[in-house]
Amino acid sequence: LYRDFDDDNDSGRVRVAVRLRPRNAEDLLSDADFADCVELQPELKRLKLRKNSWSSESYRFDEVFTETASQKRVYEVVAKPVVESVLSGYNGTVMAYGQTGTGKTFTLGRLGKNDASERGIMVRALEDIMDNISIAFDTVEVSYLQLYMESIQDLLAPEKTNIPINEDPKTGEVSLPGAITVKLRDLHHFLELLQIGEANRHAANTKLNTESSRSHASLMVNIRRSVPGKVEDDISYQDKITKGNFPIVRKSKLLIVDLAGSERLDKSGSEGLLLEEAKFINLSLTSLGKCINALAENCPHIPTRDSKLTRLLRDSFGGCARTSLIITIGPSSRHHAETTSTIMFGQRAMKIVNVVKLKEE
Ligand code: ADP
């Protein structure tokens, strides 16, 4: 009855999953009556949001993950189809959106140093990519960036700030020539880089005296694959590459974006820097929301130029790209307003249909 996450008949649409964070100590302390504001019905892929004490509204997503869903399952459902299409030469994006503290970084960036089962989407994606390319003939390059107050900072070299975005006027391809790109040797190499990036992100947050994420973090993975020329089909991939010529190089890009907290920071009467930051976060998330609406409504003009976030996503969101969005929520009714706005954002994103095209040189 319901479409599967990767239903081929519907392959261009943005896939949206919702993940509920387990109840934490703060929820337990403050919710005396354990009044959850959501109820999940994973078998129906539905989420019921309580409107008030007597009524609730039900929403359908492509997938609904309860608080016990494993990192492996979340990866396999949300990100693996995107990674597979990136390996076939398409662009792809995986984004996480939600209030601070609801598990965006847990879902995407978890290193799982002591327990590989805890690894998040970034590590699992790179593991799949490295397992499926030929290191001798293909290249995988990563950059790790943070967008803070409309300035792009390199998380692999934090002294590099204000990195400009380059958009190829002919192809519309987005690149960041000023950012460090590291050619990966293996998964271990990636784990080292991610650890450096996370430490720099943490240091930047500490400097801002905050545990909340006021920046968007984006891992950019550029893949160039040599597609072998026409040789007999019954020889191995390695042999094909060695024996064939290389008439085709396929370029594709995977973006994994940990968006800034979706809460409206200005509601508590912030001042000074906090207010400035709130304005920038609101600007980028509002412009992302506008692009999502415009794409969902099939508008001829998508307002990507309004913020750096949407400029960065230009060739990854809409156009020739595959996109999965995971929205993260907490169970507590204390955050009813934020949870509602996160769910509405996810519902709008479900309407976007991307045009999936192959790019070849
Ligand atoms: P965000 O990036 O949205 O601000 P985090 O990923 O930092 O949130 O998560 C906040 C806290 O909740 C962290 O301590 C994290 O380990 C924990 N957490 C989040 N999601 C889960 C989950 N699905 N299972 C267990 N712990 C989680």
Structure report:
With 361 residues, the chain is an alpha/beta fold. The protein has one domain (9-349): 3-Layer(aba) Sandwich (Kinesin). 31% of the residues lie in helices and 24% in strands. It has nine helices and 14 strands. It has helices at residues 25-30, 71-87, 104-109, 121-132, 187-207, 237-243, 272-296, 308-312, 336-349; strands at 15-20, 38-41, 46-52, 55-60, 63-65, 91-98, 139-148, 151-154, 166-167, 174-175, 182-183, 216-227, 248-258, 321-329. The strands form three sheets. Strands 1, 5, 6, 7, 8, 11, 12, 13 and 14 form a nine-stranded mixed beta sheet that branches. A three-stranded antiparallel beta sheet has the order 2-3-4, covered by helices on one side. The chain has a two-stranded antiparallel sheet with strand order 9-10. Helix 2 packs across helix 4 (121-132). It is globular and about 70 Å long. Residues 355-361 have low confidence and may be disordered.
